[in-house]
Design brief:
By secondary structure, this protein is an alpha+beta fold. Helices cover 26% and strands 40% of the residues. The chain has 1 helix and 6 strands, in the order αββββββ. The longest helix is centred in the N-terminal third of the chain and has 34 residues. The radius of gyration is 30 Å and the shape is elongated. InterPro entries: DUF4307. This is DUF4307 domain-containing protein. Pfam families: DUF4307.
Length: 132
């Protein structure tokens, strides 16, 4: 006694529904992956291109109630924006934070700003600069 085969003859009825579903999933996955890469590229470009102001802390002079910070700011001529500076105490607690605005036509500005603190600060840290 022989048993009947349950497989369909190869090539006779076209592709199976599993093969069609696999192909559809691959196409959808590639499309979504390309879209994700495009969105990440868009935001990365605008993050880098929009930041027209950069700065660095040249020096700082701490006291009991304030920290005097010398900032060197580079920006496009005529651009305006602000930089955020913070100070921490010896134990790491934040004792002061402020935004300082920079306007004007100069491309490079060196300015001394005073950051008021709630306790003696031991550091001056530039957190970032943003253009308006």
């Amino acid at each position: 006694m022989s048993t009947a085969s349950t497989r369909l003859p190869e090539g006779r009825y076209g592709r199976s529904s599993d093969e069609r579903a696999d192909r559809t999933l691959k196409v959808v996955g590639i499309a979504l992956g390309a879209l994700l890469i495009a969105v990440i590229g868009y935001f990365a470009y605008h993050y880098i291109a929009a930041n027209k102001i950069s700065a660095e802390v040249i020096s700082f002079d701490p006291s009991d109630e304030a920290v005097k910070v010398t900032l060197a700011v580079e920006k496009e001529a005529g651009a305006s924006g602000y930089c955020t500076v913070r100070s921490q105490a010896a134990d790491g607690a934040e004792v002061g934070r402020a935004d300082f605005r920079f306007d004007g036509d100069a491309g490079r500005i060196t300015e001394v700003v005073t950051l008021r603190t709630t306790a003696p600060g031991t550091t001056a840290e530039l957190l970032g600069c943003h253009a308006d």
